[in-house]
Amino acid sequence: MSSPFDAELEHGDLTEIEVAWPDQYGHVLGKRIPARRFLPRATGEGFPFCDAALAWNAVAEVQGDARLTNWGTGYPDVYAVPDPATFRRLPWRPGAAHVLADVVDHHRDPVRTSPRAVLRRVVDRLAALGYEARVGVELEFYVLNADGTPLQDGLHAYSLEKANELDPLLAEIGALEPFVPVEGVLTEYGPSQVEVNLAYREALGAADDAFRLRYAVKELARRNGLLATFMAKPFNGQSGSSAHLHVSLWRHGEPLFAPVDGRESDLATQAIAGVLRHLPGLTLFGAPTVNSYKRYEAESFAPTSATWGGDNRTGAVRSLVETPEASRFELRASSADANPYWAVAAVLAATVAGLEAGERPPARGAGDLYADARRLPATLGEAIAATRDDAVLAEILGKDAVHDYAVLAEAEWTAYTTEVTSWETDRYLRRA
């Protein structure tokens, strides 16, 4: 009997296949499977792993307060089932391939807390309304020496000279396709900070690409004796790293955000209205760590307010009215440390909410939007509270999944707020 993997395996040159899936923070988990052992499980029950991996925090500490898996459930196996559409050869390891997996339980049902399943749920909700979302992701990161110090100094956004100094790494990133469809690589505002633009495509594929890009960048940096970090704000006084999400809706190959008399379509404004209304609640999914909120600073190109405008980089939502195919909105609130599946799912869930409610956004802002009083959550604690207060988002994303995600975030926040830091002892030990 043939399988969807036969075309890739028939050449006989593959020796190993990585089966990969994300945890809640977007870390790349998985197993390395000898190619000769891959097919029976890939086309059968899948590859088992302990479901505690879907209930641990940013540093892999299992949190027993999760609803869908905990000490009371005994942390049973779940199964990683490879998605044939995601099978790719690894550019940096000849003879090896990589495939993304969906996670199912013993009954073959999707595990509701699996980030890929959460996004599929929202994509299906949009499809039920008659829409397909297309998403383009821009990811920023710092390239550092192995000891964590920047390779460069000064501000050199768009500098080809500084980009060339980061070769061969940047050249290798630019040549990642077909593993990841890279559209452009450039230097960003911080020293040795880089941005990668990914191809605009359907939502699940866009999240897959962003997930793989982070994996590829970190691996290629390591192989070059460097360290790449997607931490949101690794350095005081320097630019933070974002994950900008460009979103539009389509039906049967036709763009539905096509401008009307040079302005946004009604559908586009409803989507933007939903994102703005639910931005406090969705912020947690695009800014998942304590550090994420240190990126939100005035006059930093990161937003601080729940505002929107036209081609304006001072608000949270930037509406780009261009050709029919290129018209879209950009959510600028997500940071590079976000799990791309959760970040994309959250903005699309807010889009669904706006469409279902037929909302209209407030008047579009102009000029400097940093002064606007409608503030984004300023800390992880505020974001957790806003998420727990947003019943509409929870219903669209999945109540159990949102509950468990908030539990992990709460553990991060508690760990941070109870930690005595060197800043405190340096500041107060000799003065108190």
Structure, described:
The protein has 432 residues and is α+β, with helices and mostly antiparallel strands. It folds into two domains: 7-111, Roll (Ubiquitin-like (UB roll)); 120-417, Glutamine synthetase/guanido kinase, catalytic domain (Creatine Kinase, Chain A, domain 2, 2-Layer Sandwich), CATH 3.30.590. The protein is 33% helix and 20% strand. It is built from twelve helices and 16 strands. It has helices spanning 6-9, 35-42, 115-128, 160-165, 169-174, 203-223, 266-286, 340-357, 380-389, 391-397, 399-417, 422-428; strands spanning 16-22, 28-34, 47-50, 77-82, 88-89, 96-104, 132-145, 182-187, 193-198, 201-202, 226-229, 243-251, 254-255, 308-309, 317-320, 328-331. Strands 7, 8, 9, 10, 11, 12, 13, 14, 15 and 16 form a ten-stranded mixed β-sheet that branches. Strands 1, 2, 3, 4, 5 and 6 form a six-stranded mixed β-sheet that branches. Strand 8 (182-187) and strand 9 form a beta hairpin. The model has no long low-confidence stretch (mean pLDDT 94). Residues 12-108 form the GS beta-grasp domain.
